[in-house]
Backbone:
């Protein structure tokens, strides 16, 4: 177990605070925002990263996945901020001095506001712009980067597209349809007004606001994957020994006898469609939180009485082991669990979830699956996108009035797994 990576993950916008040059900062602050609350100072991780990494290391963990914020590095198109890249160099140094292996993500949902004004993730323009940023980071941070995730949950746009399709058919949005925080309490008028306000702020047609967490079809999804391929090429040109990949949001689809065709279709849309773009990657970040039962009509609602998380999907820690085994049948490279966790205010349940999920990961490893790490989501209770701060995934609680950190028992449990 000495070489197996065990730790936790965060995303810059969700924990750092005051990400004022990002698209999400703008979307959070329009009058009719579709966010329940703005991110504000978030967890102040930008200033408190040393304490947070120290707590992770003291618990016995040896890995930390965090994201570099593109909007900080390139706040204006073509202008790179040397002070900000220096900040992330300090974060990497802190990891190394603490015995922590850093796993860096270059884009975890949030983007520079100027990118959205240029067409965002819905046009071919994004690939060279993202690749330029990726090369800059690789050149500036150099040998400090061992693992690099280009894009977090590159398939989220497709998954959101399916949620909208299902909502149109059913007349309502399914809770837990995607593994990201959403605000399902908005009326059509508020949504429309918010879109108009965003369009004015970004200086684009409101229907063409292509932030990353917008529904995409296969045509526009190709722009995302072209950005990944272009970034990978630039990183490898600078750091040929760095391991480069991306992460995917994957459900454990479990079909009934009549649902096998639907389950196969859903798995292809979430995973199989991406294989041609990632087959040359060094690793794949596997991210799973739950399962979905699939019958002849599609995805079923969780059974009555099934345990649910704060996010509305089923509490099902066995899913990660199942997904790892399935991915390993076709992906040729290394696998890392880059996210797996539970939104709950019951930390005792989180402790059990970690133990159960990790047992599934180790069983897959013992069966020959090339999994080399398990990173729990999340290190801190943080900003869960449209859902705000109400969803608690963290191993560490944060008093947002004082920013005091309170490690939970689940952090100790996670760290203890290295000696299991």
Residues:
């Amino acid at each position: 177990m000495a070489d197996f990576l065990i730790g936790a993950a965060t995303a810059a916008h969700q924990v750092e605070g005051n990400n004022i040059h990002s698209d999400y900062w703008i979307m959070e602050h329009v009058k009719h925002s579709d966010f329940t609350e703005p991110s504000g100072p978030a967890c102040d991780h930008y200033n408190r990263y040393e304490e947070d990494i120290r707590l992770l290391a003291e618990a016995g963990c040896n890995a930390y996945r965090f994201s570099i914020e593109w909007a900080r590095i390139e706040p204006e198109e073509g202008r790179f901020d040397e002070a900000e890249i220096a900040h992330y160099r300090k974060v990497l140094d802190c990891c190394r001095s603490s015995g922590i292996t850093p796993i860096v993500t270059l884009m975890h949902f949030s983007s520079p506001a100027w990118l959205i004004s240029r067409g965002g993730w819905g046009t071919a323009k994004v690939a060279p712009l993202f690749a330029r940023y990726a090369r800059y980071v690789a050149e500036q941070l150099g040998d400090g980067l061992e693992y690099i995730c280009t894009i977090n949950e590159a398939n989220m746009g497709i998954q959101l597209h399916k949620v909208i399709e299902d909502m149109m058919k059913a007349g309502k949005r399914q809770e837990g349809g995607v593994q990201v925080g959403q605000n399902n309490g908005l009326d059509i008028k508020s949504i429309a007004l918010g879109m108009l306000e965003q369009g004015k702020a970004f200086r684009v047609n409101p229907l063409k606001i292509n932030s990353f967490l917008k529904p995409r079809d296969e045509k526009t999804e190709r722009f995302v994957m072209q950005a990944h391929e272009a970034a990978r090429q630039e990183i490898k040109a600078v750091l040929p020994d760095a391991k480069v990949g991306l992460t995917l949001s994957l459900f454990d689809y479990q079909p009934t006898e009549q649902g096998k065709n639907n389950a196969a279709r859903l798995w292809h849309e979430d995973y199989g469609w991406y294989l041609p773009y990632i087959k040359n990657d060094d690793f794949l970040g596997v991210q799973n939180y739950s399962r979905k039962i699939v019958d002849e009509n599609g995805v079923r609602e969780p059974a009555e009485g099934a345990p649910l998380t704060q996010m509305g999907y089923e509490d099902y820690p066995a899913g990660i082991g199942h997904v790892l085994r399935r991915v390993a049948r076709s992906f040729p490279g290394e696998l890392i669990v880059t996210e797996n966790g539970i939104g709950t205010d019951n930390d005792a349940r989180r402790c059990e979830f970690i133990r159960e999920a990790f047992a599934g990961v180790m069983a897959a490893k013992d069966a020959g699956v090339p999994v080399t790490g398990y990173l729990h989501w999340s290190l801190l209770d943080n900003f869960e996108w449209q859902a705000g701060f109400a969803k608690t995934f963290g191993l560490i609680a944060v008093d947002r009035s004082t920013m005091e950190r309170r490690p939970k028992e689940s952090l100790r449990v996670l760290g203890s797994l290295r000696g299991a």
